[in-house]
UniProtKB/TrEMBL annotation:
InterPro entries: GTPase_ArgK, P-loop_NTPase
Family as reported in the entry's similarity comment: Belongs to the SIMIBI class G3E GTPase family. ArgK/MeaB subfamily.
Keyword Phosphoprotein belongs to the record: no
A Pfam family reported for this protein in Swiss-Prot or TrEMBL: MeaB
Gene3D superfamilies registered for this protein in UniProt: 1.10.287.130, 1.20.5.170, P-loop containing nucleotide triphosphate hydrolases
E.C. number(s) listed in UniProt: 3.6.-.-
Keywords, sorted A to Z: Hydrolase
One GO MF term attached to the UniProt entry: GTPase activity
NCBIfam families assigned to the protein according to its UniProt record, in alphabetical order: lao (TIGR00750), PRK09435.1 (NF006958)
Domain of life: Bacteria
Record's protein name: Putative GTPase/MT1543
A single GO cellular-component term on record: cytoplasm
């Protein structure tokens, strides 16, 4: 594990890919090796800028990552791209299956693109992604982009592992503004209205102004300097606004570093994931054949009126505790 670790620290991409396969494995011996490896790499203390990116299907996430990633590469930065795909039922089982949209980036030696594994359980995907992020940081990537499609809980998962969380939106008619849930708006550090080009440009500008107004109505967050969260227009296809977006991102992350919010946020995220891991582990105890059989047996007794739901739950919990 130490030699694999050293290769990763030297930026060896094949070693990185192998290590991610290791953290994705469910086998107990692989889990043990992965923990050892991650502990070894953590000592290096390297940090990337972790950027979460969410948006509905077709809004242009992949196109944006290709253009934005290439811009960063041209500035001499190293860029890793990971995905959180809770559904994994889509074609190819991965939101990064469409490598065609990241054709240039996927050929760059300073880029590393890893599709989401085909796990349906969000807890498993979340852990694997967090560990993959840690591996990419150890491998010396400057920026780690974490893409997720805006459905269900995946935005929360991604924002809880990001230093900056971007929401990509499409130009829309006035009424559609309501479509973005308040909770998602509150997570966003920046809103990027994509496709601000051609016929859509004027609509994009209006949409952006609407979102800027909506952002101003939200409660002020301590982790934001004046003017943030910010809404901007971009065009991933025409590569407009990408450098401005990057400027704003570095301004924001720089301010957060100087004001203790960067470390504070990472510490809060670590506590959040500790809590989640305990919850997932407790829930997974219900997922054994014995536990399911006990649940069925007690459930039947509750259904027949022979046992109250509370008494049955107490009995189930004591069974779990002794296993
Ligand atoms: N006009 C215009 N079209 C764009 C822009 N960015 C993306 N598109 C188009 O929007 C469509 C969807 O782009 P993708 O990058 O695949 O979108 P996505 O968000 O990754 O979609 P999913 O992976 O399905 O969630 C494609 O036809 C793109 O060419 C843009 O800046 N301007
Ligand atoms: Mg995509």
């Amino acid at each position: 594990m130490d030699s694999l670790g050293d290769k990763i620290l030297n930026g060896d991409r094949r070693a990185l890919a192998r290590a991610i396969t290791l953290v994705e494995s469910g086998r107990a011996d692989h889990r043990a090796q992965a923990s050892e490896l991650l502990a070894h790499l953590a000592k290096a203390g390297r940090q990337s800028l972790r950027v979460g990116l969410s948006g509905t299907p077709g809004v242009g996430k992949s196109t944006f990552i290709e253009s934005f990633g290439m811009m960063l590469i041209e500035q001499g930065l190293r860029v890793a791209v990971l995905a959180v795909d809770p559904s994994s039922t889509r074609s190819g089982g991965s939101i990064l299956g469409d490598k065609t949209r990241m054709e240039r980036l996927s050929r760059e030696k300073n880029a590393f693109i890893r599709p989401s594994p085909s796990q349906s359980h969000l807890g498993g995907v979340a852990r694997r992604t967090r560990e993959a992020i840690a591996l990419c940081e150890a491998a010396g990537f400057d920026v780690v982009l974490i893409e997720t499609v805006g459905v269900g809980q995946s935005e929360t998962v991604v924002s809880e592992m990001s230093d900056l969380f971007l929401l990509l939106l499409a130009p829309a008619g006035g009424d559609e503004l309501q479509g973005v849930k308040r909770g998602i708006m509150e997570m966003a550090d920046m809103i990027l209205v994509n496709k601000a080009d051609g016929d859509l440009k004027a609509t994009a500008t209006r949409t952006c102004a609407d979102y800027a107004g909506a952002l101003r109505l939200l409660r002020k967050r301590p982790q934001d300097p004046e003017g943030f969260p910010k809404a901007m227009t971009v065009s991933a296809v025409e590569k407009h606004g990408l450098d401005q977006a990057w400027d704003e991102m570095t301004t924001l992350s720089g301010w957060r570093r100087e004001n203790g919010h960067w470390d504070g946020n990472r510490a809060a995220q670590a506590r959040f994931w500790f809590d989640q891991e305990v919850r997932y582990a407790l829930l997974s105890r219900l997922d054994t054949p014995t536990a399911r059989a006990e649940m069925d047996r007690l459930g039947a007794a509750v259904g027949a009126g022979n046992l109250s739901p509370t008494a049955a739950a107490d009995r189930m919990l004591s069974i779990l505790a002794t296993h």
